[in-house]
Design a protein that fits this description.
The protein is built from seven helices and eight strands. By secondary structure, the chain is α+β, with helices and mostly antiparallel strands. Keywords: Coiled coil, TPR repeat. InterPro entries: TPR_rpt.
């Protein structure tokens, strides 16, 4: 039959380690012995930024394409799945398909080696720059250059596009803001305490700086708390709608619970607006719209329930009147019959 010797190489040029490789969908006829990817390319860890693994692949010469599926699992939980023909290295079509995509994957051949290269997408590269900026900001913060660190964190936020990176940057920025506020406050107290020198104006500026950065922290805290309550309310509203669609009587109570949660969120946004109106305008508007919509739904359910009850009362009254009429008719009929026989 004959054997064609080849290799499979995976190069990880991303910024995250590959923590597992999984290969399946290999047809027994296509491969010779144990030199096949579903047996010798399983469970590898491939380091980021240029790490690679290469394994031998012995092909059955008469086989058509020798396809296989490979799954790459990364340290951040992201996954890539693709399918390719190993016989691409000797002139067959690659038929490459990337069914689950987290990164860019390209393929080439070098002699009888199938070279698979994994790289970051443009978005990931941009987010990588944001992480580098975040680290730069952390170093600057540790050097107690707080204003410079704040500027660097702002640059990082402008680049970041992944939630985990954005949250890390915001956390560092809040810490920096807090430390800068403490430093300004301490310097202000020190200046005020130094009665031998006239530095009252400088002390006043320091107090103002401390106040400004403490307010920023308060604003962030209120926004986070308000958003959390708003998201909870949004989840409740979806639950209420499902109950309403199914005709469940509990929908009314669930909508009322939703309304209370939206109102709690509104209170947080209104507190923030007292400090900085512009930062909370959109949140207040959106929360207000949801409160209005939920109120309308509750009113509509109340009206529907009222109409239902009124209809029930009318039906009962009609039945009662019909029964009374029938009783009168029956009484008259009996009286007439008695008169005839008497």
């Amino acid at each position: 039959m004959g054997t064609v010797e080849s290799h499979i190489q995976v190069i990880n040029s991303t910024d995250k380690d590959i923590v597992n490789t999984i290969v399946d969908r290999c047809v027994n006829y296509d491969w010779v012995g144990n030199n096949r990817p579903d047996r010798n390319f399983q469970g590898f860890r491939i380091s980021a930024r240029g790490g690679s693994v290469s394994q031998r692949a012995s092909l059955n010469k008469p086989a058509s394409n020798c396809p296989f599926n490979m799954t790459l699992v990364f340290s951040d939980g992201s996954v890539d799945k693709f399918r390719i023909h190993q016989k691409y290295v000797i002139g067959c079509c690659a038929e490459f398909s990337h069914s689950e995509k987290s990164h860019n994957i390209t393929y080439d051949k070098s002699g009888n080696t199938l070279v698979i290269k994994v790289t970051n997408t443009q978005q990931q590269l941009q987010n990588q720059k944001a992480e580098e900026k975040n680290r730069e900001g952390e170093v600057t913060m540790r050097m107690k250059q707080y204003e410079a660190a704040m500027r660097i964190f702002d640059e990082a936020l402008g680049l970041a596009n992944q939630n985990s990176t954005i949250n890390n940057i915001k956390t560092n920025k809040s810490k920096t803001s807090n430390e800068f506020g403490k430093e300004c406050l301490q310097k202000a107290w020190d200046l005020e305490a130094n009665a031998a020198e006239d530095k009252s104006q400088e002390a006043q500026r320091k107090f103002e700086n401390a106040s400004e950065y403490q307010e920023n922290i308060s604003l962030v805290s209120l926004k986070i708390a308000g958003n959390r309550l708003f998201n909870d309310a949004n989840d409740l509203e979806q639950e209420a709608f499902k109950l309403f669609e199914s005709g469940n009587d509990l929908a009314q109570d669930k909508y009322k619970e939703t309304l209370l949660k939206y109102k709690e969120a509104m209170k947080k946004f209104e507190q923030g607006a007292k400090i900085d109106q512009g930062s909370f305008d959109d949140s207040i508007k959106i929360a207000g719209e949801h409160i209005s919509d939920v109120n309308k739904v509750i009113d509509n359910i109340d009206q529907a329930e009222l109409s239902k009850n009124i209809g029930k009362v009318n039906v009962d009254d009609e039945k009662k009147e019909k029964n009374e009429v029938e009783n009168v008719v029956n009484t008259n009929l009996f009286q007439q019959v008695d008169g005839v026989y008497n």
